[in-house]
Amino acid sequence: MTKEISRNPGTPEGFTLAVNTRARRDAPWTAAQNHILSDEGFAAARAAIGAWPGYAETPLVALPGLASELGIAALSYKDEGGRFGLGSFKALGGAYAVARLLQAQLGRGLGHPVTIDEITSRAFPGEAGAITVCCATDGNHGRSVAWGAMTFGCRCVIFIHATVSAARKAAIEAYGAEVRRCPGNYDDSVRTAQETATREGWFVVSDTSYDGYMEVPKDVMQGYEVMAAEAFDALDEVPTHVFLQTGVGGMAASVTAQAVRRWGDGRPTIVLCDPDLSACWLASFRSGAPTPVEGDLDTLMAGLACGEVSALAWEVLVDHADVVMALSDASAVAAMRRLADPVADDPAIVAGESAVAGLAGLDAALGDDEARRILGLDAASRVVVFGTEGDTDPALYEELVGLPAGAVRGAGKGARE
């Protein structure tokens, strides 16, 4: 079997696909992996998040028209655009990690255990208000951390890098956070956030992990598992394939962990999808170790513009993610437009540019005989993709799709003739 294929590099329809030769369907869920993401941790996260005001499951949308057009049996799209009014799945992770951090810090300061319910109810406003959390972000994670800080009553400073849009900066500031723009790319902003927190005595709430910083990202990832469990609970059958956009990999690892612990060696094939301009998972699987990619990482898929994989995500995905694909920005725009202008009776869906790499990867793979063979995709395949954001930058969405999000939402079913 070919371990890597590349088609039309540098073109809108081009892609690279590489097999992770270390992954096995029957690979055990190890003690080290269970220390990162566990059934117990998931149960705690689901109970806490389920009790937050405004919690509601996001829909798993069946797209039979698009599935038929693509030549597969079923396609399900988990639409995170309405999550807590923040527009993305990251509302689950960053805010939950803020709550857990406050629970731990207030317990230490007060000299007695503090419950997660006491954090949610802001039982200790003075003590919480003296704590500052911070993080680096491409947009959505920072919005979640800022919302969590506002909800639970602590101070928040968010670091953004040079190419984060003014609209995303303003959206974070709307939740009361101070936003600081710094030079460089996302990975540079991660380092700036950590250096500033160390100097100021703040607490970093990051969605990526690195040497010396592992505990908080576990809580972020455990929050993301709520999304995966909602989706899998809604299915009548085990999916054959799950396509996941990666970035640093925290979301992909969380979904994969839920699939492996739930279904074992009956799990679906896991396919990771990177922008080709920040393909750190492709580089890492090629080399067999976490491998950064350099440069400005200037992909349109800004939420995935990450040059270094999360150490925690690597621990999970190196054993359980089967294939990685690198895809063009143009393929993401095409996927956004395809969802906005649906097939037959499928509903119109508003999907942001960082939400659709998984769908773009599925489309690219189905268009190539060798890719289909490697992935085992055929007319019986049942595929799940995770639409991880809505129009988190409304002006950019309208520019890319050609319609404002409100018009797409109002179009109803079957807009395409």
Describe the structure.
With 417 residues, this protein is α/β, with parallel strands linked by helices. The chain folds into two domains: 278 residues, Rossmann fold (3-Layer(aba) Sandwich), CATH 3.40.50.1100; 124 residues, 3-Layer(aba) Sandwich (Rossmann fold), CATH 3.40.50.1100. Helix content is 44%, strand content 14%. The strands form two sheets. The protein has an eight-stranded mixed sheet with strand order 1-2-11-10-9-12-4-3, sandwiched between helices. A four-stranded parallel sheet has the order 7-6-5-8, with helices on both faces. The radius of gyration is 20 Å and the shape is globular. The mean pLDDT is 94.
Order of strands in the sheet with most strands? 1-2-11-10-9-12-4-3
Q: What name does CATH use for the topology of the largest domain?
A: Rossmann fold
Q: What structural class do the secondary elements suggest?
A: alpha/beta
Task: Work out the count of structural domains.
Answer: 2
The top level CATH class name of the largest domain: Alpha Beta
Low-pLDDT stretches: none
Mind describing the biggest β-sheet?
8 strands, mixed
Number of strands: 12
- H/I helix tally: 18
Q: Encode the helix/strand succession as letters.
A: EEHHEHEHHHEHEHEHEHEHEHHEHHHEHH
Helix fraction by DSSP (H/I, runs of at least 4): 40-55%
Shape: globular
- On the 0-100 scale, what is the average pLDDT? 94
